[in-house]
Write a structure and sequence with these properties.
The complex is a heterodimer of chains A (609) and B (268).
Chain A lengths: L1 H17 L48 H36 L2 H35 L1 H10 L1 H23 L7 H33 L14 H5 L4 H29 L4 H22 L2 H15 L1 H8 L6 H23 L10 H19 L8 H7 L13 H24 L2 E2 L5 H28 L3 H4 L3 H22 L4 E2 L10 H27 L4 E3 L3 E2 L10 H29 L12 H5 L1
Antiparallel strand pairs in A: 1-2, 3-4
Chain B lengths: L1 H24 L21 H13 L20 H10 L10 H10 L33 H14 L11 H13 L5 H7 L7 E2 L2 E2 L9 H4 L2 H9 L18 H4 L2 H12 L3
Antiparallel strand pairs in B: 1-2
Helix pairs in contact in B: 2-5, 4-5, 7-11, 9-11
The chains are: A mainly alpha (609), B mainly alpha (268).
Chain lengths: 609, 268
């Protein structure tokens, strides 16, 4: 049935589009960028109303309800749960495939356990999605109507896809133990692929509505829509947001599962359970960090596209009030990297073979902290006259140079590379390579890291201090490429060097301190909070527009809230989310509990009589 | 249950840390309120005033200095007069202007008519400008405002100011419209004159000037009126003179001044 729904979709979108006008759309699609007016097609067949010009009284008011905070919180909660339930099947698919390839059943049971957590969150996602629609219709009816008129085709498709997603998910989950072995397992894996495909399309459709509000396409300056469904979906920031969200969801999903494993580890009744959840925690942390590493690059791509769409929007994002957001972001990402590294270092305690690398930890920690401090250094400070006088200008004499983007880019690349080095030591902990070229291989890797780090530093210095402002961000691409080359080359060499390696000491799963598990919790909380904060920025750069430059926000809340206020709302949301997540963990715990109620039930003998 | 309490407490402490840093670790800047429509008193405006208005729009509502500054995002416009003559002869020029005035107007409404080398959108080979059409609702300059910016650019760009002020019919219409829609609350006055950029008042948190949230406790209406009209007459302790512009006596209408004075006097 689910497949049938998907097959019906293109027709549904066409039908919905066709219903907007009598003839198929034949004109050239128009695209409005921030740079100017759209060229209106000659043979326009569709007719859309202009964006409404509202006044404050057009916004319904409900006593005791703050419209913006309500929609903000519900949308954010929906996004957190949505991100989680879309991310989990992605890595579950990979883990299931690894299990099939290695025939190691532990992977299969781990994948199923992940799904068990995610399936409870799925119904919460749907509930929050319904609540969000309800809140929008009730509190922002004109905005909802305007968007729904333009997106009626894709909204209809979205609803159908949601049925398909649910059907596939339930077959995938409830059929897990039924579809085992041989061809059945392949069918199950295919269902996983289908689940992920439908999930991604669902997210991409919803992303289009959001990005249209940021970078409307095919509209003239009065907000009259001149295109078809695809033109509205394929707006300028759609793809950058899609990429960013897929990667971020993976990192976020991994961190939540990590928190689940940590909770179960802390509640474990015996060593077997501790070992099991330690192993799951390790894998979840690996997934979170593997996705965290490319996340800054996806962020650069998104920011570059925001600048390409509208220089004004880009400057609003990176300068002025929002510049301080990136200092908060630096603190959060610093916390993420430090806690992930801390967890890896604790993990080295699982094997006696790791002792030889313990001395290196303090150096890695030193580099991570220095890189974090550079990233954390603000550029333009907002100062009082007295502060300005005592500082001798708007920038600090020595530290001011660390505030610019190339310095921060350099710092973040160092953070990524040294986190990878932590991981490398962890992987090497219990092994000794046996290949004849091991010494040469190590020497090449040391050279690779040294040259790469020098290159990243020189690029940062050159672009940061010897070029003008426009070219300063240009350091990011060669620096990122250097980092990627280092990591990919090293990973390939490592896999070859450690093929058939000798195990010097076994890994003792479960031999982890309770404190290390809190690092996993910190990871989950910091990710959640960070997502909330960046959601505030993404939305706020529209400033006083519902739809950038075409549909003015005239509600009493049209102003951009300050960071402290935003932090309070994000914190409130994070607390609500974590309460619900911990509730889900608890549900999964009681699910496996059995109580023997002696004397409560009639025994079978009595029933027969 | 003990683990639920432990992880919940830990999560709360972490969230509290992030919240605390965001509230107390960084300066709290109140973002600017949504722009209010500029009311132009063209009837009483001299040519110099018109040029000054253009400068105000160039540096404010027009967002021009976001890019046209020394940081290299867009060309500097201090020699726009002589440079325009060369551009009009450039084979890459695609517009229809024949004079500096026409060129300036065209560059604001059809910025891609001529793109200065090195300043085009990336990948467009300098055929497409990243600059928005200033009449678009993102910036939304009116014909009069564009004319004022042209006057300012001609004046500051070393060429004769040829642009004429809108005719008297327009002026009368504007004046009538203005009278019909004059500001009605002190908050609107505070927003219009951006008092919150320097003072903490009406929910805005400027830090350069004195905090006005309880000013009515210490100061009467006469004092406040004088502080607005002649800011350097008496300097509040802890602050330097010469910081607050002395232009409000000329810019503010009597009604606006009284609204503001009454409002401030009532802040106790």
């Amino acid at each position: 049935m689910a497949v049938l729904v998907i097959l019906m979709l293109p027709g549904c979108i066409r039908a919905a589009s066709a219903s907007e006008g009598p003839a198929p759309y034949t004109s050239t699609l128009v695209s409005v960028s921030a740079t100017g007016l759209a060229s209106v097609p000659d043979s326009k067949t569709e007719s859309y109303p202009p964006a409404p010009k509202l006044t404050a009284s057009d916004y319904p008011k409900i006593n005791g309800v703050n419209s913006r905070v309500t929609v903000w919180l519900v949308a954010q909660m929906h996004l957190w749960f949505g991100a989680f339930v879309l991310a989990v099947p992605m890595f579950v698919f990979i883990i299931e495939a690894i299990g099939m390839a290695t025939r190691d059943e532990r992977y299969d049971s781990m994948a199923f356990e992940f799904m068990k957590v995610s399936i409870i969150a799925y119904s919460l996602t749907a509930l929050l999605g319904g609540l969000l629609t309800f809140a929008l219709v009730l509190l922002y009816p004109d905005l909802f109507k305007y968007l729904a008129t333009i997106f009626r085709g894709s909204m209809f498709a979205y609803a159908l896809l949601f049925f398909a997603e649910s059907a596939i998910l339930y077959i995938y989950y409830y059929g897990w133990h039924w579809l085992q072995g041989g061809n059945k397992k392949w069918v199950h894996l295919t269902l996983g692929l289908l689940l992920n495909s439908v999930g991604c399309v669902l997210m991409f459709l919803a992303n289009a509505w959001t990005t249209f509000m940021m970078s409307p396409a095919a509209v003239d300056t009065a907000g009259v829509f001149n295109g078809d469904t695809w033109a509205a979906i394929h707006n300028h920031l759609w793809n950058p947001i899609n990429v960013h969200r897929v990667v971020a969801n993976m990192a976020f999903g991994g961190s939540i599962i990590g928190a689940y494993a940590a909770y179960k580890f802390l509640s474990a009744k015996n060593n077997g359970e501790r070992a099991h959840y330690d192993w799951i925690g390790y894998n979840a942390n690996f997934i979170a960090i593997a996705a965290l590493l490319p996340l800054p690059f996806a962020g650069y791509y998104l920011t570059a596209e925001i600048y390409a769409y509208s220089q004004q929007m880009g400057i609003t994002l990176m300068g002025g009030v929002f510049a301080w957001i990136f200092i908060i972001q630096a603190v959060l990402i610093g916390a993420l990297f430090l806690s992930a590294n801390y967890y890896l270092w604790c993990g080295m305690g699982r094997s006696e073979g790791a002792y030889r690398y313990h001395a290196m930890i303090k150096y890695i920690a030193f580099v991570l902290v220095v890189a974090f401090m550079v990233w954390f250094t603000p550029h333009t400070l907002v100062l009082t006259n007295a502060e300005l006088k005592s500082l001798g200008g708007p920038y600090h004499e020595y530290l001011g140079v660390l505030g610019i983007m190339p310095a921060k880019n350099t710092a973040v690349n160092f953070l990524i590379i040294f986190t990878y080095i932590s991981f490398l030591y962890y992987r090497r902990a219990n092994k000794i390579p046996t290949v004849s070229w091991a010494t040469t291989g190590n020497a090449i890797q040391i050279a690779l890291f040294t040259v790469g780090l020098i290159n990243i530093t020189l690029l940062g210095i050159y672009y940061g201090y010897f070029t003008n402002t426009v070219y300063k961000v240009a350091s990011s691409i060669p620096q990122v490429l250097t980092t990627l080359i280092i990591i990919i080359t090293s990973a390939v060499m490592e896999s070859m060097m450690y093929k058939g390696a000798k195990e010097v000491a076994p890994l003792h799963w479960g031999r982890m301190s309770n404190r290390s598990q809190y690092a996993l919790f910190l990871l989950a909380v910091a990710f959640t909070w960070l997502m909330g904060l960046m959601g505030y920025v993404r939305s706020s750069i529209r400033q006083h527009w519902h739809v950038s430059n075409v549909f003015r926000d005239k509600s009493p809340d049209a102003y951009t809230p300050d960071l402290g206020y935003a932090a309070s709302i994000v914190s409130m949301g994070t607390i609500l989310f974590m309460v619900m997540v911990i509730f889900i963990f608890w549900l999964s715990a009681i699910n496996s509990r059995r109580t023997t109620a002696k004397g409560y039930w009639k025994n079978k003998h009595d029933q027969h009589h | 249950m003990i683990n639920i309490i432990k992880v919940s407490t830990f999560s709360l402490v972490v969230i509290g840390g992030f919240w605390g840093f965001s509230n107390f670790g960084i300066p709290q800047i109140k973002p600017a309120p949504p722009p209010v429509e500029e009311k132009l008193d063209l009837g009483a405006m001299s040519k110099d005033d018109f040029i000054a208005l253009g400068g105000k729009i160039f540096n404010g509502k027009g967002n021009c200095t976001l890019c046209h500054n020394t940081m290299g995002r867009a060309p500097i416009l201090d020699r726009i007069g002589p440079v325009t003559v060369e551009r009009l002869k450039d084979p890459r020029y695609k517009g229809e202007a024949t004079t500096v005035e026409e060129y300036l107007k065209e560059s604001m409404t059809k910025p891609s008519a001529f793109v200065v080398s090195g300043y085009g959108k990336s990948g467009s080979n300098d055929t497409e400008s990243p600059m928005p059409d200033v009449t678009g609702s993102g910036i939304g300059l009116s014909e009069t405002e564009i004319a004022a910016v042209i006057a300012y650019l001609q004046y500051s760009g070393g060429t004769e100011v040829t642009v004429s002020m809108p005719n008297s019919n327009d002026q009368n219409a504007k004046a009538a419209a203005e009278a019909a829609t004059s500001l009605n609350t002190a908050e609107e006055v505070i927003t219009k004159y951006a008092c919150g950029a320097c003072h903490t008042v009406a929910g805005q948190t400027g830090e350069i000037g004195p905090n006005l949230t309880k000013i009515g406790k210490k100061r009467g209406k006469e004092y406040l009126r004088q502080a607005i009209l002649d800011p350097d007459a008496i300097i509040a302790s802890g602050f330097k003179g010469g910081m607050m512009p002395g232009k409000y006596g000329e810019e503010m209408k009597a009604k606006e001044l009284e609204l503001l004075v009454n409002y401030l006097a009532g802040l106790k």
